[in-house]
């Protein structure tokens, strides 16, 4: 049986949706809806490598600045909060995994090749994630991943557009600006008995100018920070 497709062209993107008559959002429209004016390209640092080799997931509860190790195994990267903040969706190798906060064991949702980074949910139901596919040596493209059936819909990315290049750089980076605060990953240097140690630390900068050390790693690389939807917690990867 032949399948019907609808093709939409908006802001230079072509998005093919199977069996739908609704207007599809473009890559830029989705990003601005997710991040709002905080995703202004001029406000970004540019590309910042995430901890692609993975690490252990930690969480900081901002109310009392308590830190907790969430996973005993390493190899996780690119965590994002579920829409209800009750769990995390993260990557480990080619597996998309749910990490529950209630103590339930991790749940493998899908196995999908070639996903570099999870960006966040694009729908209120928590079924579809915006993801980035590809690699640094061949470039990246945005795609929509359906967590229910594993279907991946690639979005056309115009790498000749400066605006879209800047937006891709923002998504590949680790810093995020919100209306009243900024989460950033900063390079640090520490003296040790064997010489200088270079590592990355995660900070939260508030509108009043105060700065909080989120990861407190003191010499261990940390990255991939993600703020919860209610802005009460930050999860991150510690490269142990």
Would you write up a description of this structure?
The protein is about 10% helix and about 45% strand. It is built from two helices and 18 strands. About 30% of the residues are buried. The strands form five sheets. The chain has a four-stranded antiparallel beta sheet with strand order 4-3-18-17, with no helix packed on it. A four-stranded antiparallel beta sheet has the order 5-6-7-8, with no helix packed on it. The protein is globular. A hairpin with a 3-residue loop joins strand 10 (about 130-135) and strand 11 (about 140-145). It has one domain (about 5-240). The protein is mainly β.
Task: List descriptors.
240 residues, mainly beta, disordered N terminus, 18 strands, 4-stranded antiparallel beta sheet, 47% strand
Number of E-type strands: 18
Helices and strands: which structural class? mainly beta
The spatial strand order of the largest sheet comes to 4-3-18-17
Biggest pleated sheet: 4 strands, antiparallel
Helix content: under 10%
β content, as a range? over 45%
Task: Explain briefly what this protein structure is.
The protein has helices at about 25-35, 160-170; strands at about 5-10, 15-20, 55-60, 65-70, 75-80, 85-90, 95-100, 105-110, 115-120, 130-135, 140-145, 150-155, 175, 180-190, 195-205, 210-215, 220-225, 235-240. The protein is mainly β and about 240 residues long.
Topology (SSEs and partners):
Elements (H helix, E strand, L loop, with lengths): L4 E6 L2 E6 L8 H9 L20 E6 L4 E4 L6 E6 L5 E6 L2 E6 L6 E5 L3 E7 L6 E8 L3 E8 L5 E3 L7 H11 L3 E2 L3 E12 L2 E12 L4 E3 L8 E6 L5 E6 L2
